Amino acid sequence: MLSKKEKKLIKEIWERLTPVAEDIGSDALLRMFASYPGTKTYFSHLDISPGSAHLCSHGKKIVLAIAEGAKDISQLTVTLAPLQTLHAYQLRIDPTNFKLLSHCMLVTLACYLGSEFTPVAHAAMDKFLSAFAAVLSEKYR
Fold this sequence. Notes:
Blueprint: H1 4-17, H2 21-35, H3 53-71, H4 76-90, H5 96-113, H6 119-137
GO molecular function, one term: metal ion binding
Family: Belongs to the globin family.
Domain Globin: 1-141
């Protein structure tokens, strides 16, 4: 699915973004909530207003999980196993939301990285985030 060069690029991007995980993650979540309001239902018990502690905390968790998966993409299923179970059986998140968040994450990355988010980086990240969403959805089958 991804070449060695693409895997290296993805890993490097997420390593650079880890220090700003809270900003990237909360921005992607806000984009998802604005574009797909139905996704807010899973967060009704939390304050998800811009800049809130809950939003920033969850956004950071998401980015750190993605960054962890990027470290060894060939082991993505193993890395994400605990999150698969959590989202499928305990939280019962509609797996479509993983695709929606992936799209919003791409937009956030494009805004944050600007010209560094080249067409090659965009294509590689799109493939990686699609795989990430697919792996999270595996427990639903």
